[in-house]
Structure of Isoprenyl transferase:
Amino acid sequence: MAVPDNTPPKGEPAREAPPLHVAIVMDGNGRWAKRRGLPRTLGHRAGVEALKRIVEAAPGMNIRWLTVFGFSTENWSRPAAEVAELMALPKRYFESDLARLEREGVRVRVIGSREGLSRDLVKICGEAETRTAANERFYLNIAFNYGGKADIVAAARRFAEEVAAGRATPADLDETRFAGLLATGESPPPDFIVRPSGEQRLSNFMLWEAAYAELIFQDVLWPDYSAADLKAAIAEFQTRNRRYGTVVPDDALAAG
Ligand code: FPP
């Protein structure tokens, strides 16, 4: 499937701003809880409430795709009780919000490996995807048991399987085809990736897709994250000069 393109046509000024794909590393739940003398569990639950707020606010801010990092392939190394709590979050979220997401035109995808997830959780995620499959107003990708490196390996394996089955040759592989094999294959690349909580790294999130994403770091813990913070991130993004490896016309004249 072709990857939708949300960049303005080359050489033409955008008439109206194209819709955005925003990706968020939802970080800081643990610190939020610790500052309040609460168990980390309650930080994660407050994180679900923040996710609800942002999913509700995003469509009104010209955002059409939202990809959030809910559980990384590395998070399995946390204490068992915390892993169990994190595993319970999609159920908590969908129980309270799936009907609304379905009604409001949100297409949900849970991206990442299903390996290691309980049967119950796999079923819940599958149900969220099926019930919202026809929606097109807004796209919500929840990265769960997701790792950027693992996703790249899985895409490479999928292509190798196509070659082995005689459906493709190695020469057929290019960046567009490869991008389509990633878990995010049906979304355009993110325009910007936000990481709240003051940490400044990607932590294995959307490694391929981040190639030309702007990175925005904000000093707020995820459970406190509000629509105003998202608005501020968009304002920051709009100050960035995206060149995609080329030069802006004025600089090219100066160089010539
Ligand atoms: C990182 O904060 C956050 C996580 C590992 C979990 C993120 C999950 C949510 C915000 C809820 C997601 C909801 C769904 C539906 C999956 P941290 O615990 O590492 O915080 P710390 O760095 O302050 O310790």
Notes: The beta strands are 20-25, 63-72, 106-111, 138-146, 192-196, 214-218.
